[in-house]
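Example 3.2
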Amino acid sequence: MNPLPESYIRKMADEPTSKFLDLWKKLSEELLGYPIEIMMGDRKDNPELKHIPGELNSAYPAVIDGNVVLPIWLENPKSFDPLLITHEIGHWILMVKGFKGLVNKYNRQSGIDINMNSLAQHSPLYKLQRSLGHDPQKMIDTRTKSNLNNLTRGPELMLGDRWAEFALLFADDALNCSEELKNDLIELLQEDFPVTFSFLEKILNLVSKHDLNDPKSNLAFLRNLVDTIYLGEGWKVIDEVVELKEMIKECNQKK
């Protein structure tokens, strides 16, 4: 089943969501030469996403009916959460404006690279949402509470790469959640997860030396992060826009 068209999203959209849709259309036309339509669908209708466990919301370009579009695949599209819509569009707005990520050629889409790229992009993404009228604070705090509740009390028995993975997750929370929750998070990790906390301290110290709202400084942060928390070899820059441009080129050639 094809995702729903942008016209459906616009009928449901609040003013900030409409602003995001307009900004994406403007940027895609100006920077890519192609006005890319936003669509929305149930991730269970996507064969590549339907079997992934847990809750998943994601957006990735596709060719549908001969046109390059940006479908947003949601866990529960019937509930229509505007903040989720602008969150997923926002990631792509940042990418066409020059933000890049890192992936590991030996283990792509691992928990580590997902968490590190989310950490790097979420601060500028939340700033973008707020600038256009959406306040993501409640969503951020809900995620932080969920991550705290999922921690298992007891001896810190994890493999080394899991310390880094969890520290990246909690660094994202600590940077963006409310101050009270941040204090709870820091206190819990200090007491029960000292190794994870030591990684968290390194990450937050590194963040303080970079401007995550600037694409170049953001990428420099990611590069430095690899060495700071001992993530090993095989990391390379990924620019999703290059693949998107190639998709547009191929689509135009077929018309």
